[in-house]
Amino acid sequence: MEYPGSYFTRPWRIILLIFFIGFFLTLTPIILLYSVGYSYDWQNGLLKKTGGLSIDILPADTSVSLDGVKLNEKMPIRLKNITSRKYDLSLSSPNYYSWQKEIEVKDKETIYIKEISLLKQNSPEKISSDLPEILSLSPNGNYLAYAIKKTDTDNDNKNTYLIFILENSTGNNQLIELPTIGNLPQMQWSGDEKYLAIAPDSTTNDNIFIISTADKKLTWQIITSDKSAVTKFAWQDSPGQQIFFSTKKEIFIANPTNARVTSVSKNDFLDWQTENNQIWTIQLSSTTDKYVITKDTFGFATEFATFNVDKEIDKQIILPEILAAHAGQILLQIRPGDVLIVNQNEQYPIKADHWRLAPYNDWWLFWTSYEINTYTSGQPPYLLTRSGEGLRDVWPLDHYNTLGLVWNKRVEALFPYYSVSHNLLDYPVENSTADSFHKILYFSGTLKDERGLWKLPY
């Protein structure tokens, strides 16, 4: 039936219906192919598989180039349906080090470039002409304590150590008045940065000096009632900072606020360590001849794990030492060059001369002079890198766990998740520490014939 005067007659309606059906049948497969990662190469007349690339890094004004072609897009960048192949990716920003890597876009997969913060290019700034032998940075990077050695040529070349505290926000650098320190000291900060504990001898810890950062003066010298030598000390990592310490006979807790020392227990343990308000201990079981780790010994006292290692090497008695307790895991020194990670499910031995716990993501770092191993809870240890350059120290540089590797002749920045690196310093340093919160590397050494303590903002 046709209406009088109608131009949209039946034949035209049929044609339009056929057109839409054909359009649907043509467009639908194309949309489906693109959605599952295919694209059409018009130049070669071929149907190709594609992938994706997602880039979201800092700083936000970073320029991104693929195979030398700059992308005119801002962060975050999302590239869909790009040809599956290898690309040379370059990230750059004014006054920052460039970041370059060959990436491979695979069929139906998206490559993510994220959790990267480019490092600034700066020149080192001299802090002091002194050459520290120890650097100790407070937990949030607000204070830097360091020790320098002075030799008295008029007194049989006797060495003494002077302690300084640098307040980073003001640049105030103050000498701490202490009794004479004749041996290399050990320094340990409280978690709230209010106090610095100094053991005048890092091997014996005969007594402990407590320094308040409020006035940079000697607040307290901890001495036991019987004047016994202190064998170990560790800050309680919780509000109301107190410090645990032990002699051969007893374990004590000391409160710097009121200068009060309280006996906690007899020291019947091979070793102990703090975690928050708990004390972990090691004892040797007389029935099983295995070492027993106890959690919260002076609280609920739960047997955490047992382990068995050689108790004697070359006729020398080897006693395990608790290096750290963190997030329900224990790090043990079982012999020189060998550590053991212990949790309730697994035990992992690692060859390591040094270790550090990154403040981000509960990431453990272990290294010798030639290799770095890492450990994350729930996964076995992982060999990160190996080199013959002579590795001296490893520092987390930012909250993405970029690492500063201190080699014998240079300092390198490594982005471990991407195996990308570049140099921060092209010359050797003697001692170093890194403030990952404010992004400052502190180091001692010689720069352009000038010896001293330096800082490098990055």
From TrEMBL:
Keywords: Membrane, Transmembrane, Transmembrane helix. It comes from the Bacteria. Coiled coil: none annotated. It holds the Pfam family PEGA. The chain crosses the membrane at residues 12-34. Residues 51-113 form the PEGA domain. This is PEGA domain-containing protein. It comes from Candidatus Magasanikbacteria bacterium RIFOXYD2_FULL_41_14.
